[in-house]
Amino acid sequence: MVTAGMAGRQCGIGANTNTSWGWFADRIAEFQEFLFLWAERQRVRRALARMDAHLLKDIGLTPGEAENEIQKPFWRP
C-alpha cells in the first residue's frame, strides 16, 4: 500500500535533503524564489513610476508614498 507520504517521496517531493545533492537542490530552489521575488518587486515599482496621481489615489497611495517605494532597490521589501 502506498501512503501519501510514500507517494511524495517517490516523486521527489519531501525527499531526504541530508544528501549533498538534496541540499544543493534546495539552495538552488531558494535562490530561484529570491530571483522571482526581486523581479516582481522591480516590475511593480516600474509600474508605480508610470502611474499619475489619479491612479495612485485609486490604489490608496499618495505620490510621496509611491516615490518612496520606487526609490527602493529591488532587494529591499
Automatic annotation (TrEMBL):
This is Uncharacterized protein DUF1127. Pfam families: YjiS-like (PF06568). It comes from the Bacteria. Residues 37-67 form the YjiS-like domain. It comes from Dongia mobilis.
